[in-house]
Amino acid sequence: METKTMEEYMERIRVLDTLEQQAMGLSRMLTTYTDRLQERLEQRIDIELASEAVTLTSIKNLEAVVSKSVQQKQSLIKKCQQLDREMDGVLTVSSKVREIKQLLDVMEYTKRKS
């Protein structure tokens, strides 16, 4: 009976060794998977940070372009208003030139009749 007990004991030790080796293998696999997951998460964080930086830069550039466009439109409006005010003087001169031309036409007509 002692032999059977010794064989059972040795078999149990082999089973325990096998289980220990399998447990260590599973532990290494879990560590590998965890490390890969951590690397992927870090990559994802880096990508998201880069994306956020690009987005912020784009927004700032867009803001600058819109601001410049608004300033140019305001400048154009001021120039148009100034031109409109200056045209009042041109219209007055144009009106006087027209009157002078009409007077010259009348004088020329009168001279021809005489």
From TrEMBL:
Output the superkingdom of the source species: Eukaryota
User: What InterPro entries does the annotation carry?
Assistant: BORCS6_C
Q: Name one Pfam family in it.
A: BORCS6
Locate the BLOC-1-related complex subunit 6 C-terminal helix domain: which residues? 14-108
This chain belongs to the protein called BLOC-1-related complex subunit 6 C-terminal helix domain-containing protein
- Species of origin reads Coemansia reversa (strain ATCC 12441 / NRRL 1564)
